[in-house]
Amino acid sequence: MTEATTFTSAGDSALPTIRPWVGSRYSRTGALGAKVLFLGESMYSFSGEEPLEHAVNLDVERYVLGTERRSFHTKVANIVLNRDGGYMEPETVREAWNEIAFTNFVQAYVGDDSRVPVESSLWQRSEKAFHEVLETLQPDLLVVLGARLADKLPATTGLERVDIHHPQSSFEYARWNPVVRAALAKVGAL
Description:
Elements: E1 21-22, E2 36-40, H1 55-65, H2 71-80, H3 90-97, E3 100-104, H4 120-137, E4 141-145, H5 147-152, E5 160-164, H6 173-186
Parallel strand pairs: 2-3, 2-4, 4-5
Antiparallel strand pairs: 1-3
Helix pairs in contact: 2-3
């Protein structure tokens, strides 16, 4: 289900580039009418065995394409589909994730539990890989998940960007879905 996208090394001082999830309908002809990249802050290794390069795709394959569920993936699907939360059939979650691309900014595991603060050196070391992802995927809209990430993110000149509350932190669809829809309209989507 993932698109074959090749990423080169981001340089000596940067970390290896983690391959982003690229949905099968990530395009301007998909249901959203725009190429939308959702950007998370960081990721966690719960088992310590996940290969870093494929961490994002393994996560999506497990919790979106597979039989296990995590609320994060359903909440992102609700944002993509402009729904106000609640139960969503697994197939609907899959359809939503196939409309978008997703990656995390920080190019390393930051711990084995969520809400672990990111070491300051990792922010700077991940910038080059982030710009490489933007150059390769050419999104029309960047949806930034979380205030801390929004504050630390380098400039994205020429790219429409919307910063929203992180879906795992008291997310209010009634507040944030219209913000995402307005940004989509601004890039000529929908």
